[in-house]
Fold this protein.
Amino acid sequence: MSSTDTLVPPRVVARPAATARTGRRRRPWMAGVVLTLGAVLTAFPFAWMIVSAVKPRSDSVAYPPHLLPSHVTVQYFTQLMRQMDFGRYLVNTLGVVLISMVGLLVMAMAGYGFAKFSFRGKEPIFFLVLTTMMIPVQVTMIPTYLILNGIGLTNTLVGIALPTLVSAFGVFLFRQFMTTIPTEVLEAARIDGAGEARIFAQIVLPMSRPILAVQVVLTFITGWNSFLWPLVIASDQGLYTLSVGIALLNQQVATNPSLQMAAAAVMVVPVLVVFVVFQRHIVQGFALSGLK
């Protein structure tokens, strides 16, 4: 064996598959960090609102700001309900929401009709319903006010809730969902002698629970956050909603951040509670209705 025939160690070649697996192991950790930071940044204003609502006024106006209160107090919530008339605003807002819930049945019936019935002019009428989504609310506000004033519904809770009773988007959601209901089930019920009202109440509505949950949340948010229309149609301050009351509070009280944050908490927390309760149904309803 000659001196030139020395053994050369083999090269160590990196394996692309192993590198890819290592990268995949790192990605969930990095994604978790990014999502955690995003969640903290998103939730911080809400947490600050809740903490500030139970702070004494001295802590709210202190500089530098105090993250935690020196002691917890609920006096500002009591002041809102007893002295600032927020109890009446809360009752008015709940009344508007309950009246708006009546529109769920109307939208469900309209969506069922567009989804499962054939009649002359069905497509043009549905297209006309969809085109109303492109008209800004401010454009129809004056005609709506004149109509309600003509029938004597101004300065009433019914007049506040009536314009939002039915929405084209709600009809569209119901129609999209109800097209997925098997027609064979409805035909079998008709053969067994069930009427259309019974089919709708006992078959269609129970099968439409996910989209009903979506519409409950959307209707609740619309009625709960109503601001401009109650301000226009109600000249009596006793008929104002919570959002209008908060706007008045910000004009009247400018040096008490704790009181303002307590009012904001009264406005925001119920919406979050409703969303958390119906969260699973909301995701399922949007998925089954074809909206991505």
The mean pLDDT is 83. The longest helix spans residues 16-53. Residues 132 and 139 are 11 Å apart (CA to CA).
